[in-house]
Amino acid sequence: MAELSTIARPYAEALFSAAGKDAAGLDAWSGLLSKLARLTELDDVRAALADPRLSDEQRFDVFTSLLQETLSPTARNFIELLIANDRVLALPSIAEQFEALKNRQAGTALAEIASAFPIDDAQVRELVAGLEKKFGLKLNPVVTVDDSLIGGVRVKVGDQVLDTSVRAQLTRMRDTLAA
């Protein structure tokens, strides 16, 4: 089976193109996709969407009833298409790729920062300022704490990773000594 990101890419690109022409705008679509993706990550929802006893129409009704909001005709068509093609469980990947397209158009990128210890807002701003110079992009930081790093930080921007953690340094030393 094809990798999920490969399956999700054409859907994200088509939706991004349609959303760019929609009066609601990219931010509204981004929010909707985020909600849809969170729904598909729930075990009960995944089970209902995979239930072979339900028709596509029943899956659509169950799924959209959980949103508790009125959908535009374009959004309804998009969800119906995903359900008909058995791709609704790809929504988290579609949402992620949609955000990447949106960020690329805006000249921004998501910076996933993992730190061994909690870092305050001033430290985040300082780190992001240096990273923005390096990448030449406006960065939107998302900071998490990962105590397995032992010390330091690991930053992921797109497909690039800067790992200055103690764990990475120990791994490099081990590899050097073993060679």
UniProtKB/TrEMBL annotation:
Keyword Chloroplast: no
Gene Ontology CC annotations of this record: plasma membrane; proton-transporting ATP synthase complex
InterPro entries cross-referenced by the UniProt entry: ATP_synth_OSCP/delta_N_sf, ATPase_OSCP/dsu
UniProt GO molecular function: proton-transporting ATP synthase activity, rotational mechanism
Principal location class: membrane
Membrane protein topology class: Peripheral membrane protein
Highest taxon, organism lineage: Bacteria
Subcellular location: Cell membrane; Membrane
Keyword set, alphabetical order: ATP synthesis, Cell membrane, CF(1), Hydrogen ion transport, Ion transport, Membrane, Transport
Coiled coil, from the record: none
Family under the similarity heading: Belongs to the ATPase delta chain family.
Function: F(1)F(0) ATP synthase produces ATP from ADP in the presence of a proton or sodium gradient. F-type ATPases consist of two structural domains, F(1) containing the extramembraneous catalytic core and F(0) containing the membrane proton channel, linked together by a central stalk and a peripheral stalk. During catalysis, ATP synthesis in the catalytic domain of F(1) is coupled via a rotary mechanism of the central stalk subunits to proton translocation. This protein is part of the stalk that links CF(0) to CF(1). It either transmits conformational changes from CF(0) to CF(1) or is implicated in proton conduction.
Protein name, per record: ATP synthase subunit delta
Source organism: Paracandidimonas soli
